[in-house]
Amino acid sequence: MINYLVLLSAITLSIAAAYYSIVGLTLIFSAAVVPVMIMGSALEFAKVVSVSWLYRNWKICPSAIKYYLIAAISVLMLITSMGTFGFLSRAHSDQTALSGDTLVELKLIEQQIESEQRRVENAQKSLNSLDRLVAESDTESAIKLRKGQERERKQISSEISTAASAIKELNTKAQPLRKESIKQTAEIGPIKYIADLLYGDNSQADLDSAVKWIIVLLVLVFDPLAVTLLIAANIGLAKTKTKIKLPKIPKFPVEKINSWKKNKKDGIIEIDSESLMNIK
Q1: Cα torsion at 94, 100, 106, 107 (round to 10°)?
Q2: Which residues span the domain enclosing 115?
Q3: Same domain for 154 and 190?
Q4: What's the CA gap between 24 and 91, in Å, rounded?
Q5: Are the beta carbons of 198 and 213 closer than 8 angstroms?
Q6: Based on the domain organization, do 203 and 148 belong to the same domain?
Q7: Same domain flag for 216 and 81
Q8: Confidence check: pLDDT of 8 > 60
Q9: Do 194 and 257 reside in the same domain of the chain?
Q10: Do 185 and 62 share a structural domain?
Q11: Tens of pLDDT, residues 150-162
Q12: Is 160 found in the same domain as 214?
């Protein structure tokens, strides 16, 4: 039973590795997607068959064919690993690009919000200066001064109101981007911890390096493990022998056999009925 489970595991890993490899190769040769898919599928199937055939015919296989198949299988494993590496790298690049676009857009909006906030602060400072002038004047002068400031105060109030409305609109626009940024930060959180463990820093270069090492580790145990399990399954299945139950052969004493030989007539040995019953 375990041998069939090993075989099933090997086939499952081979199919998964073939899928990721073929998708990765189509990303590399995007101008010929269908031909690459056909070629990749055929090569992956041929690799699995070659591994099984080579193991079962190792002793009788001619040296030229043997060494060529070994080289071909090794190259196909390398191609599968390259395709898988390309697929996983593309997935990480897409995630990083999406995160980068979100951050750039969010940064632009936040800069606009800061600019509007400065407008409010400057307008408020101007309004405070007008209030201070009024406060420092006597009552009669303050009334005249305030009356003369009405137009300027109206412009300042309008500017504050416009800037506040712009800030509110920009915050509304930035809210989904902030949520998306938090979500993306949570998604790459494990990578940040790994980068911090390996490099002690969370810079983008260290994050990319950590991701590359993870992909390399996945590649090292993906297709090579599938091929190794396929060989192991062949070894286990080859050693499994079908047990055949043979009929029991009755054993008779030597004296009995000698008496039959002595009593034979014309070269024919006569066996008594009791012995025949024992044979049945």
Answers
A1: -170
A2: 2-239
A3: yes
A4: 10
A5: yes
A6: yes
A7: yes
A8: yes
A9: no
A10: yes
A11: 888 888 888 888 9
A12: yes
Residue 24 and residue 162 share a domain: yes
Is 123 in the same domain as 230? yes
Q: Is the pTM of this model over 0.70?
A: no
For 77-127, what is each residue's pLDDT tens digit?
888 888 888 888 777 776 666 566 677 788 888 889 899 899 889 888 888
* Number of independent structural domains in the chain: 2
